[in-house]
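Annual report, structural modelling task.

Input specification for the 7TS complex:
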Amino acid sequence: MSLNIEYSDKMHFASIRADFPILSQKVYGKSLVYLDNGASTQKPKQVINNITATYERSYANVHRGVHYLSQISTDAMELARGTVRGFVNARSDSEIIFVRGATEGINLVASSWGRENLKSGDEIILSEMEHHANIVPWQLVSEQTGATIKVIPISDSGELEMSEFQKLLSDRTKLVAITHVSNALGTIVPLSEIIRYSHDAGALVLVDGCQAVPHLPVDLQELDADFYTFSGHKLYGPSGIGILYGKESILESMPPYQGGGEMIDTVSFKGSTWADLPFKFEAGTPNIADAIGLGEAVNYVSSIGFDAIGAHEASLLSYATERLNQIESVKIIGNASNKAAIISFVIEDVHPHDVGTILDRDGIAVRTGHHCAQPVMERYDVPATVRASFAMYNTFEEIDLFVKGLQKVQEIFS
Ligand code: 7TS
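The model returned the following structure:
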């Protein structure tokens, strides 16, 4: 390898890689090179074993039973809630709501807080780099309430136009709903500044943290976000489970999102009363084993630590960026100065799906398409991009194979 990349952490990350059984398999007879971590990460055996152990030894429905297994299961789920609370440094377990994923987290806030608090004349500010999950719920609630949506534009390099954001903020702004890291560009947004400006204008802030929590430490008390949501499956945890954080005082003031068992205190035909937080927002039997599994994933990530993860992923990103920039026909979309380990790009005169298909035959998994961020595609006037998104278990050798695959694409189409 010609580039000057620090290799001191190589052994450590080789042992991490061994924790992920799926990575050692072959596809089409080739070693799997998994670079689709933005869509979903693979799972370490610690998480897989934890889920198996729940079903083999300690599974029962939670919160309702006096029997042994129900209590064990309840304790494990509540322990996981506490683990997540510590991971994002929330003040209290009451602020950690288990949801299906970020999509449900945002829909919960849009439906419950939005319908209660928004009216005609109010404004919600989003950015041009949002995932559809942080656009469509606000469109739905806008139709219901008469509130309007304003959009922060992004620059050619993929950064938020902060001066435009400040111009959009006014006393009409009730909520700023913003991603922490763009899934389509990799941009890490200046979140502290955004939250400070928004609060100064009297607006609440919801953060879509899906692409942030696998890559960087999040301290919610320091950030002072009002809502923060993420999905377990992008954090080396199970799918079908995620977290919505909300400040306790705000969650207390919000009506329930769904009605049913678990979320009530009393029910009669004269009316019902609600359970305390966080259960008020957890109607029905929760995803018990996966909530516990998410706690294990958080323990796993914490045991490695963001100093090590951040350093390794930053090396991967800079190495991959340099190698891609050496290929003439490659154009990287999104060159923000502060980026997570995600690279979106197009190859001149080749459709991204063709790139993805050719790479796939060499065992290399990337994502192609609009990445559920169609406004980003429109902004850069491309139908789709190829996206390589890295995780802590990726290696420099995998980047070399990926680049070799891209050179093959170039040869086929030249
Ligand atoms: N927000 C961001 C920034 C995302 O990247 C995603 C999923 C979501 C929200 C929705 O998460 P879910 O778990 O509720 O579905 N992003 C992607 C992606 O980039 N490719 O596949 C899914």
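The chain has a mean pLDDT of 96.
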